[in-house]
Amino acid sequence: MNLKEAIEDLQTGTKHYKLIVLNKESKDCINECKSLDFDGVVKVDINRVLNEKLLDGKTKEEKEHETWDLIKNYLDSLNFNILFLHNVEYMFSKELGNLDVISNFKYYSRNGHIIVLFVNGKLIDNHLIYSEEGYPDYRSMDVSEVNLVGWE
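The structure assignment produced for this chain is given below.
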């Protein structure tokens, strides 16, 4: 299934979670967005948003507690039907409290908006592996309830 088919499936289907995880580097986001013809598409560089909002004199502990609320409040302020989130690497940093990125966005997608995450990682069984074991940004996240595009 390609990205366009996955989005159309979520638009017409009855899935509870409307999260698509796309196995692409963030640099490919622009090309993917241009190839689609959907209303209400918004593209967000989440690293930029987090850097602008979180680096203003906050301690590591404050960042850990505030990160997801900040992301959620920012997304709530946008008007979109389909959200493309790229440059997601910072969300995996230990500095931001070891967010479970997939779980958080899966939960957020319940509001009916389609969310597409551009994540460059490995798929092993029903788990998305980000980074390498032993590194501070390593994550193994359950993706059994989300749509996966580009994983082989």
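Interim note for the steering committee: Residues 60-76 form the longest helix (17 residues). The chain has a mean pLDDT of 86.
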